[in-house]
């Protein structure tokens, strides 16, 4: 994983800690955000948008056959990770 993606995950972890969320939430969100970033391949972090999140979630539903609860966790982690990358989001 490249330096920029590692920085996004680090900032995500810090944001979760600042919000006072549990260590389990921290681990879950960072793991799920990492999987989302891996799904996006070599696409620039700066280029990621809500359509990328949507494609990822649809892939989880149709190809991975995950539950709606799992999709919700991935959705939250992906969006939180994106906002950690771009605080203005």
Automatic annotation (TrEMBL):
Annotated GO MF terms: DNA binding
InterPro entries assigned to the protein according to its UniProt record, in alphabetical order: CB, DNA_brk_join_enz, Integrase_recombinase_N, Integrase_SAM-like_N
Residue span, Core-binding (CB) domain: 1-89
This protein's record includes keyword DNA-binding: yes
GO BP term (any one): DNA integration
Keyword set, alphabetical order: DNA-binding
Domain of life, source organism: Bacteria
Name assigned to this protein: Core-binding (CB) domain-containing protein
UniProt source species: Sulfoacidibacillus ferrooxidans
Phylogenetic lineage: Bacteria, Bacillati, Bacillota, Bacilli, Bacillales
